[in-house]
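Sequence in, structure out. Go.
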Amino acid sequence: MLAAANRKHIAMAGRLGSGPTLGPQVPGGSMCSGFVEMKPDALATTHQFFLAFDFGTRRIGVASGTRLLGAAEPRGTVKSGDFSAIAALVKTWQPDALVIGVPRYPDGVPHEMTTKARNFGRRLAGRHHLPVFEVDERYTSVEAEAEGAHDVDAAAAALILEQFFREHP
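Output:
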């Protein structure tokens, strides 16, 4: 059954550009749900397809990606707190795991949004019973803006997921 699920995710990875979207156009270590520091070998090969989230108090950027390609695709933005929209994405994409960006001050010190993003991650883990990995997301929105992204939040989520793939090849 697991092999069939992985084939489905790999097949979906080939269709990333044609998958569902939302709306009009739509450097630290990673951590997992339960927020225990991940070891490099802790990412089993069964974790192949991911949804990533750039958490904000008004909007949450969403991206999907596959370890096979090592790339992520922006999928749009949902209203912050709209867990039914997130549930629909999880049902549609059926990811093996979720990735959230966790902001920090430039010196690495946590702040108020760090706590809010981690709480969001805990809620995702509890609702969807999937591993949730954290990625340091300092400057992803700034980078997305600099690249001229139309949907900065979704582009930032894609950058977060690509950072995760670089940290865990």
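Check: Strands lie at 49-54, 59-66, 71-79, 97-102, 132-136. The two ends are 24 Å apart (CA to CA).
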